[in-house]
Amino acid sequence: MKRRSTAVWTGSGKEGNGKLSSTSGVLKDTPYSFAARFVSEDGKSGTNPEELIAAAHAGCFTMALSFQLGNAGFTADELTTDAVVTVENPDGAGFNIMKIELMLKGKVQGIDKEKFLELANNAKNGCPVSKALASVAISLTAELL
Questions:
Q1: Which pTM does this prediction carry?
Q2: Which of 34, 44, 77, 118 is the most buried (most CB within 10 A)?
Q3: Does domain 50-144 have CATH number 3.30.300.20?
């Protein structure tokens, strides 16, 4: 399996801008820029790589948890995951992704909190995006509704 996305950039790093496209069409000339990445946090000026990493991680983790639940005999009524990617320039030498926080809320009939947490942690550790981001601190909070 291979997935492809394309970035096209024009201009300098700070004043330039780019567009992102993906094979599926979910991204189609989606704007991104320095301002969208480091200045405008409202998301109105475009996306940024960290937002896309957060979306990928939330999606991968939540799907992995759905499989974990199914293998344990449960079906989720609903799983909602917020992923927050924190970027900092701690020493002034360049920006780094410092941490990723996964915040899960789930509605699953018949499961207790301990089993839900166990399966959520298995999903956090086992999803392909978590594995790819293993050099970053990844935390998980989980709430069973």
A1: 0.92
A2: 34
A3: yes
